[in-house]
Amino acid sequence: MISRGFSIIELVIVIVIVGLLAAIAVPRLAAFGANGKYATTHQGFRQIAAALDIYHADYMAYPPNAAIQTLPPEMVGYLDEAAFTVPPPIGRAWDWNGEGSGIRDHGFNLSIHTVSREDRDEMERRFDDDNPETGIYRNQSHYLIWPVGP
User: Fold this and answer.
1) Is 2 inside a domain boundary?
2) Is residue 32 part of a domain?
3) Is this prediction's pTM over 0.85?
């Protein structure tokens, strides 16, 4: 008698192979999510800083300080409001520390509030010089800071 189905051994082998492939693929797919959140955050910093630099070129000054996650009114036309008011992939909120902010340790700066140490270190490692005191990213307490201007 000829059997037309699969044997138990054949089914077990197929299940083991599929399991191994899944074990290899899932961690790699999870890494894509992490890569995306850091790249998107870095691009957000670049986009907002470029808009601030264009504003500075037009008026020879930066806009005044604004509340957390609030686009300075002077920046309307230079930057889409959603780019500033939607929370970044890491941290809680964008913040512009312009004239009148009282936070001048790093000059005028763009920052993200409530960023974990792990995320700050990863941004430094991926996009900067791996030194939290120099380069484009400055780490301070629970902020990730991008100094703007001279």
Assistant:
1) no
2) no
3) no
